[in-house]
Amino acid sequence: MKNPIRPERTESLVAKKPVLLIMAAGMGARYGGLKQITPVGPRKELILDYSLFDAKRAGFERAVIVIKRESEKDFDQWLGGRIARHLCVDYAYQEISRLPAGFCLPAGREKPWGTGHAVLAAREIIAEAPFCVVNADDFYGEEAFRLCYGHLSRMNEDNDFTMVGYLLKNTLSENGYVARGVCETDAHNRLAGVTEHTHIISTVDGPLSTEDRRTYTLLPPDAVVSMNMWGFPASMMALLEEAFPQFLRNMQDPLRDEFFLPTVVNRLLEAGKAIVTVRTTRDRWYGVTYRMDVPQIRTALRDMTKGRQYPKPLWR
Questions:
Q1: CA–CA separation, 215 and 210 (whole Å)
Q2: What is the CATH number of the domain that holds 237?
Q3: How many domains does the chain have?
Q4: Which of 297, 287, 309, 299 is nearest to 54 (CA)?
Q5: CB-count exposure of residue 270 (10 Å: 0-12, 13-18, 19+)
Q6: What is the spatial distance between Cα 272 and Cα 280, in angstroms, rounded to a whole number?
Q7: CA distance linking residue 171 with residue 84, whole number of Å
Q8: Which residue in 95, 153, 225, 264 could disulfide with 180, CB within 3.0 to 4.6 Å?
Q9: CA 316, CA 314: separation in Å to the nearest integer?
Q10: Helix, coil or strand: residue 181
């Protein structure tokens, strides 16, 4: 059946033009629901609306939204016809039972396999195009999409990656802990590595990181962090497909371990198979990790709309 939010394809949609891949299949455990379809804009727009809008004005013409199959009706209800006139949008389905040959779903596993697996779910749809990866519940801002699209439009090597980074202090929540990948870069703004911090809290002294909830490390507020906005050549799909079985073979906890996209990038860097140019924005990042985050982003988007950064209504 034809996707209801997908317009008819036109000749202008060249196969190798950059594609936006939006990961929207997360469970939202800390949020307590399907946070990807929480209304936040002045006219009940989703964060996803703003990502699609910013991507469109950056130059993207195609988007793939990775969702759970059972969530399709919810996304159709919220996105529906208002997107179809502006972008070609397809769904891809992240299913935990979709594993490489020779592997079986561990008994009791309910948690999705993570961001690397989400990207793999869209391999057939994206085909041979370079692509930008973002989270559906993160607000990135116009500049981030422009930086990523510009890089993707110019890349011509299979190892040419990019990442849009944010200052750590601009990504924290006042309502609880967050997970962030802290980046190390060289003098040429090339990524040297990503260190995952799974529990960072905001304090008056600065961001504190802990893994055991007993000892804490103070992180630099201006540290550049990954918010999972990556730009990849088409060859990244094959690299992920190669890395996923290795992850499954080496799992420590079959019920909880995740196939993280930054971890794969780190290993490609170590193996000399990727060069990642980090393009940093000083814009404020917004997300809805917790329900208490929603009023803050609603206020921010209302102010941006009043300041004419976004039209009202968003889609005309």
A1: 6
A2: 3.90.550.10
A3: 1
A4: 309
A5: exposed
A6: 23
A7: 31
A8: 225
A9: 7
A10: strand
Answer whether residue 5 is part of any domain. no
Q: Residues 131, 18: contact at Cβ < 8 Å?
A: yes
Residue 35: predicted pLDDT: 63
Tokens coding 309: 């950064």
Quick one: tokens of 259?
A: 């196939």
Per the structure, the complete domain to which residue 112 belongs is given by 19-306
Rg (CA), the chain: 19
Q: Is the pLDDT of residue 61 over 80?
A: yes
Determine, yes or no, domain membership for 240: yes
C-alpha 91: how far from its chain's center? Answer: 15
Least confident of 74-83, 125-134, 142-151, 264-273: 74-83
Q: What is the pTM of this model?
A: 0.87
Residue 1 counted as domain residue: no
Place of tokens 């780190």: 266
User: Mean pLDDT, to the nearest integer, of 143-168?
Assistant: 95
> For 178, left (φ over 0), alpha (ψ -120 to 50), or beta?
beta
Which of 223, 257, 220 has its CA nearest to residue 112? Answer: 257
Residue 3 domain-assigned (yes or no): no
pLDDT at 126 over 90: yes
Portion of the chain with pLDDT greater than 70, in percent: 91
